[in-house]
Amino acid sequence: MAYVAGDxxxxxxxxxxVTSTSPIGINHIMGTGATVYGLGQTELAGVAAGxxxxxxxxxxxxxxxxxxDNIGDHTNDSLTARTQVVAGDTIAIKAAIxxxxxxxxxxxxxxxxxxxxxxxxxxxxxxVSGTRYVGSHIVEHTVTFANANNMRFFFNAGGKIxxxxxxxxxxxxxxxxxxxxxxxxxxxxxxxxxxxxxxxxSTRSGTTETLTTDGFAIGFQDVTTSYQTVFLLTQANGTYTxxxxxxEIKGNATAGSTVNVTxxxxxxxxxxxxxxYTSNNLSSIxxxxxxxxxxxxxxxxxLPTTAQGLDPVxxxxxxxxxxxxxx
Length: 327
What we know:
327 residues; six-stranded antiparallel β-sheet
C-alpha cells in the first residue's frame, strides 16, 4: 500500500521500513547490507508478523526514527524533521519515511561522500627510493581488512585510502642541491596532491599537468584481481615533459569478496639524455645533474569516526609494503 502520513502504522508496513531489501529498509542501509549498502551497525528487530494488526510499540517506532537520524547525521543527509512518540500515543506513519529511506540508501551507496566525521589516520607505510635515480620509483602498498564486510563498511561510511608523494630533493652529488629533475618532480607532486581511493570513485586534490589517463571513476567497488589505472599524469610545463606519475589499484578478489586493496604508484622519468658526468668532463657541472633526489610514497587512511552517529566504525587489520623498486 502507499504510505500516507497520518495512517496508522501496521506491523507489515513497519517491517518494510526496517527489514526489507526492496524497497530498501533501514537495516539494509545501516546493518550488514550487501554490495554498496551496509555500515555494520546493530540492526533493528522487526515486529511479529500477523494479519497486519500486531502492535508496533512506541519503543520500536522510536528506534527506527533514531536509527534514521544517526545515519542522516553521519552522511549529512537532510531528513524530514520528526518528533519521537511516547507510550500511549497512536503510532502513525510519519511524513516522508519512505522517501527519507531512499535518500539515506543513496548516500551510503555513494560512499557517504558528504560525511565530515572523518579523521586522518597516522602514516601506515612509507616507501623511500633510497637513492638518487634517473629511471623510475615504483612501489606497491597493500591495505588489508579482517574480512570483506568490514572493508565494505569502511568505504560505505566514507573511509578512504590516501596516498601522498613527497621528495627530499637533492638529486645532485652532495645530496642537498636541487636539480631540474627535482623541480619537475615537485610539479608532479603538486599535480597529484592527495590521491584518495573511495568507495565508488577516486580523486586527486591537484589539478595541474596533463591527465593522460582518467580512470577516477574507479573506486573500491570496482576492484578486480588485475591492476586498473586510476590516473596517468604527464608533465606539461616543466623541462622534462616525458615525466609521468601513475596510480593503479587492485584487490585480491572482486568487490564483495576482496579483503584488501593494493595500490601501485609509479614515478617515471623517461628522459633518454641522462648521463653520469665523470671527473674528466665536469665543466663545473654536478656529476648528478640529471638525477632525481630521494622520493617517498606514503599511505594512510581517512577514517570514519563515531562523532556523528556511527558506532561502531571499522578500520584495517594490517598494511604492508609489497614492493619498492628504484631503477
